[in-house]
Amino acid sequence: MSFGTVAILGPGLIGGSLALALAERSLARQIRIYGRRDATFPAIRERLPLAELTTNVLDAVRDADVVILCVPIETMAPLVKQFAGSLKPTALVTDVGSVKESVDNEIAPLLANKALWIGSHPMAGSEKSGFAAARPDLFVGARIILTPTGKTAPEARERAETFWQKVGASVFTAPPFEHDKMVAHISHLPHLAAAALVNATDENHFKAAGPGFRDTTRVASGSPDLWTEIAWDNREKIKSAIATLVTELEHIKISLEKGDKSGLQQALQKAHDQRSKFLRSHL
Amino acid sequence: MSFGTVAILGPGLIGGSLALALAERSLARQIRIYGRRDATFPAIRERLPLAELTTNVLDAVRDADVVILCVPIETMAPLVKQFAGSLKPTALVTDVGSVKESVDNEIAPLLANKALWIGSHPMAGSEKSGFAAARPDLFVGARIILTPTGKTAPEARERAETFWQKVGASVFTAPPFEHDKMVAHISHLPHLAAAALVNATDENHFKAAGPGFRDTTRVASGSPDLWTEIAWDNREKIKSAIATLVTELEHIKISLEKGDKSGLQQALQKAHDQRSKFLRSHL
Description:
Two copies of one chain form a homodimer.
Chain A: E1 5-9, H1 13-24, E2 30-34, H2 41-47, E3 52-54, H3 57-61, E4 66-69, H4 76-83, E5 92-95, H5 101-111, E6 116-117, E7 119-123, E8 143-147, H6 154-166, E9 170-173, H7 176-199, H8 211-216, H9 224-233, H10 235-257, H11 261-281
Parallel strand pairs in A: 1-2, 1-4, 2-3, 4-5, 5-6, 8-9
Antiparallel strand pairs in A: 7-8
Helix pairs in contact in A: 4-5, 7-10, 10-11
């Protein structure tokens, strides 16, 4: 199976891993990689000797069958404006942004009648970033959320689904608004909570930390700039997610203040049981 | 090196692991284990054929050189009252409770002029419990916090330090109050935050969860009953730790509400940098 010519715009952790996965699995006739600067090209060439590398986005997308936007969200629309007129009408364009409603609102009109468009969000990543951290198995076992709308062509959805499945992921769909609410809770909130937990901790206490602190705060080591952009783009949904977490914390605090030991036990029991459901759903 | 006759009161995960470590490393002339009921004795005898097992605490502590309280915190003082008058004056008594100020306030007066006393908190454990989960290497690489006070004999501190080092742990000290504040932030708060995070999450969103949610909430799968006891015993310090976390979360939320992107970036940057310090301190 080949997806033809695949243009990956942005060779960071996700874009780089995607290129490596496509190469390792022989899923593309040609891989093209667009980077804003060529400083990273020698490192890319070493691991992907057959890929075409370019700093000209028009060269990257020309005659491409699949185009994947792997650049920061705020640079997606300006980039799409540059190349929308140069796409094959049968080209499938998707992205890997972690926020979908604003991306879809901006990108869908730019590509209407010019190519097939659907948003994608790979729930994969790492606290590391950049091509150096890329690996071909990043998507194996990962979940991808596709975000079709009423305007999405069924063909776009089917092709995107097959594309992500072939690099090892499992795919499900959600409308962009639902997606943003879901990831605000399940992805962005844990990041912000981990950061808040570190910031609430006196560094003189680190010496007493065990595996609980280490794991609970792991994602706070993610790129501050990357996560600022992500949280910023989804801030409306995140504000209410934070409020929900604060309510749960206050609930535990009030149990302690009121001497309500069974209230505390119930909160911990509920969390334990819910997390078991989560683990079962991810078997 | 031998610590003479060592009495372990309570053969659960910690007490059982300690007995196994002492036996494996030939650190005791005699190991005595006190259990409230003898139902667990056959399983203990199988792994510790030379240990003396008894349901009579006076038989366990008679002529003992070291006595370790490995029973639940709320049963420590009643137990010590039973045997305090039967100790050798040179006996070293310590415990493994995860809260220290209340334990020290209760136990120290009971043992004054009767034996040497110092509190210990092994930062070791598992989400499993009971003798079945015990293993001789539980303390290898673990950190032990000793909690001396102004009344602690230097000899108690030195002997306890050597004792824990010989089973593989590294030891540091903190006064009981400081210890409780420290673990409220570094151990208890991450547990409660993980539980609150799970409780703040709609189970319909679990399908979108990635490794960030999984790791940030891992400890929420710990025993609700065990963690209720731990949090309950340290509730004064935990209340203020929760308040600190809520303040940090509100700080992030306010940045989002006010459109203060640089405030958000600074919070994430600070957390990132602090966590790097934590990682370096645990190399």
